[in-house]
Amino acid sequence: MRQMPCINVHAIKTRQGGTEVFSFFIPGSRILEVAEIARIRHSSDSRIEGFQRPEIKAHVRSIAEYLSGGDVLFPNAVILAIASDAKFIHKRGTKNGSIDGASEVGVLSIPVRTNRKSAWIVDGQQRALALAESGGSDLSVPVVAFISSDIAVHREQFILVNKARPLDKRLIDELLPAVGTMLPRDLSTRRVPSLLCAALADTPGSPFHQLVKRPSHAYPSAVVNDSTLVNLMRRSLQDPRGALAAHVDTDGTADTDSMYRLLVSFWTAVKDVFPNAWGLPPDRSRLMHSAGLTAMGILMDQIMTRSGHFGGDYAAARTVLTRLAPYCRWTEGRWEALNRDWNDVQSTPKDQRLLSNYLIQLERDISRASAA
User: Fold this and answer.
1) Are the CB atoms for 167 and 125 separated by under 8 Å?
2) In degrees, to the nearest 5, what angle opens at C-alpha 256 toward C-alphas 251 and 259?
3) C-beta of residue 123 within 8 angstroms of C-beta of residue 147
4) How far apart are CA 310 and CA 305, in angstroms?
5) Mean pLDDT of 302-330
6) What does the alpha-carbon distance between residue 276 and residue 285 come to, in Å, rounded to a whole number?
7) What does DSSP assign to residue 115?
8) Which of 1, 232, 290, 328 has the fewest C-beta atoms under 10 angstroms from its C-beta?
9) Distance separating the N- and C-terminal Cα atoms of the chain
10) Partners of 143 in the β-ladder
11) What DSSP line would sit under 276-324, residue for residue?
12) Which of 83, 81, 85 is nearest to 154 (CA)?
C-alpha cells in the first residue's frame, strides 16, 4: 500500500484539558498545503458553516511586502486545529530529570492530502496567505496546534483568540449560537440574543424571515442589521422588567422557546398592523430603521409584560398597536409630538430615546383612556 505523504516536523507535545497540543516550526509556504481556511457561510439548509472572516487583501498585501523585504523576524504563531490521524512519535533519549516533565519532544507527521486538508487555521489566516504569496514563504514560522476535528471547538478557540482584538462583534454574535462549550461570562450572556436572532432570521413563519443581514450572508430581501435585533433583545434580557427577562429562571436558565414565541407574537403583530412599512429599506421606512426597531423593542417590554387582560399574546399586542397606528409616521408625514419629519429620526441615542419615550407614554395614555 502506498504511504500517504506527510510533513514531518520536530515538535514539543503537551496536554491541555485532555487535548494534545503541539508547538513546532514549519516553512510558511507549507501551511496552506496542509491547512484550510474555513470561511463563514450558510449551507443550502441554512446551517452555519465555517467561522473565518473574509480575506483582508490590503492586510495580506502589507504582510507579504514585509516578508519579501529580505532577512526578517516573524515570530507570530499560527494556530491550527489538526485532524486526529496526525501521528506523534516520541523521541527517545530526551528525558532529563532537571527539566519539567509537562512536555515531551518528538516528530509530528501531518498527512498531505489532495482531496481534503489535514488541518484548519484557527488564527493567522492573513499571515498564512501572506506567507504563501511572498518571496519569504520559505521562512520557518512558529505554529501551535491542537488535535481536534470538531468545528465547534474551532469556533470556540477562534472567538476566544479574537475576543480582545478588533474583531467584528456581529461576526462573534453570529458564531456564538454554534459554540456549544463553556465561554467567559460576558460572551455567554450574548449567546441567547444571538441564538434568537438566528432563529428569527432563518425560520419560515418568523416576521424577520430572510430580512436580517449577517456577516456570513444576506438574503436579497434583507433590510435589518442583525446587531439591531441582538441589541434590543439583550436590553430586554438585562432589564429585570423586560419581556425576555421574564423567561429566565432564578438559576439563570433561559427558556429560549418561550422567548422565541413571544418575539414572533409581538413582531408579527407589528408586521400586520404596519404592513406598508414592514420589510422596506430603512431609508424608506423608519420602522425598519434601527431607531424604529429599538423604540418598538422597548415598547415590546411594556406591552408583553402587562398583567391582566394583556397576557403577552399576539391578539393583545395587535390590539395595542392598532390603537397606536394613527399616531405613527413610519414612511411619510410628520411626528407632530416630536416636531420631526418621518425621515428625520436618526440612529442616535437621543432620537431613539425621544421616539421610545413618546411611544411608551402614548400607549399608556391610550390604555388608561380605554380602561376608563
Assistant:
1) no
2) 110
3) no
4) 8
5) 82
6) 9
7) S
8) 1
9) 88
10) 24, 78
11) TTTTS-TTT-TTSSHHHHHHHHHHHHHHTT--TT--SSHHHHHHHHHHH
12) 81
Alpha helices in 78-184 (DSSP H): 125-133, 151-162, 169-175
- Report the C-alpha gap between 190 and 14 in whole angstroms: 32
Cα(112)–Cα(116) distance, integer angstroms: 9
pLDDT for the residue numbered 118 = 84
Whether the Cβ atoms of residue 176 and residue 159 lie closer than 8 Å to each other: yes
* Average pLDDT of the chain, as a whole number: 82
For residue 38, give the nearest of 181, 152, 132 by alpha carbon: 152
Q: Which residues of 121-130 are buried (b: 16+ CB within 10 A; e: fewer)?
A: bbbbbbbbbb
For residue 124, give the C-alpha cell: 493567522
Which residues, 6 or more positions from 213, have their beta carbon under 8 angstroms from its beta carbon?
222, 223, 224, 225, 226
C-alpha–C-alpha distance, residues 214 and 48, integer Å? 11
Look up residue 128 and give its three cell numbers. 498564512
Residue count of the chain, please give it: 372
pTM exceeds 0.90: no
- Write down the residue that cell numbers 473565518 correspond to: 52
> For the chain, what are the domain ranges?
6-162, 170-371
- What sign results for the dihedral spanned by CA atoms 324, 330, 335, 337? positive
d(CA 218, CA 100): 52
CA distance 159 to 152: 11
Q: Which of 78, 79, 82 is nearest to 7 (CA)?
A: 82
pLDDT in tens, 165-198: 555 666 656 666 655 554 444 445 567 888 888 8
Q: What are phi and psi of 86, to 5 degrees?
A: -65, 140
- Do the Cβ atoms of 173 and 44 come closer than 8 Å? no
Helix (H, G, I), strand (E, B) or coil at 19: strand
- The pLDDT-based confidence of 65 (bands split at 50, 70, 90) is confident
